[in-house]
Amino acid sequence: xxxxxxxxxxxxxxxxxxxxxxxxxxxxxxxxxxxxxxxxxxxxxxxxxxxxxxxxxxxxxxxxxxxxxxxxxxxxxxxxxxxxxxxxxxxxxxxxxxxxxxxxxxxxxxxxxxxxxxxxxxxxxxxxxxxxxxxxxxxxxxxxxxxxxxxxxxxxxxxxxxxxxxxxxxxxxxxxxxxxxxxxxxxxxxxxxxxxxxxxxxxxxxxxxxxxxxxxxxxxxxxxxxxxxxx
Length: 231
Description:
- The protein is mostly helical.
- It is built from eight helices and six strands.
- The protein has helices spanning 4-7, 13-32, 41-53, 87-99, 103-116, 166-180, 187-203, 222-230, and strands spanning 55-56, 61-62, 85-86, 127-128, 139-140, 154-155.
- The strands form three sheets. The protein has a two-stranded antiparallel sheet. A two-stranded antiparallel ribbon has the order 3-4. A two-stranded antiparallel ribbon has the order 5-6.
- A hairpin with a 4-residue loop joins strand 1 and strand 2 (61-62).
- Helix 4 (87-99) runs antiparallel to helix 5 (103-116) and helix 4 runs parallel beside helix 6.
- It is globular and about 60 Å long.
């Protein structure tokens, strides 16, 4: 007969109980720091917990979702990999965490951002890996059936190579929000903002793939132009 010690990978019942209590206590302590006091506080905290769980603590990177190849429509082929750090999504998460009082998480993401986008603004990608990886090659895994037989199963995301003008606006807005909510000033952040604006002076008139990440020819999207104006 296999005993509990073997089933639990060498941990005793008391070890597991202690780990569970420590985990629950940690999450309660973290949740109690939320500054939001409105009517929907419980729902807001639950959402913040989800965002925190999408954050890779060693680097501060925030993934868009913990899923890959879930179809937009059952049986359809629009099955993308979202286990990556979209700048657009992450700026919204940054704003949510910062405005709710979670400066440490917001600061960690800003530091991740500065490392990931280092270089010329024209080379800035719309998404990166958890540790700032740039090579996010998209490929298909033919031998997997996919969710509800929705093929193909994809890993990676070719949209990483797209030009999406709106991202510059969301990024500039998030960095401004950091200043407005009292996040410590950073010369590196300010230099990044200056470079982004210099690039936008000539890039805002260009067509792009837009927030919808169209895989056809670049076009002029109203939303993209509005977000360039926001920047």
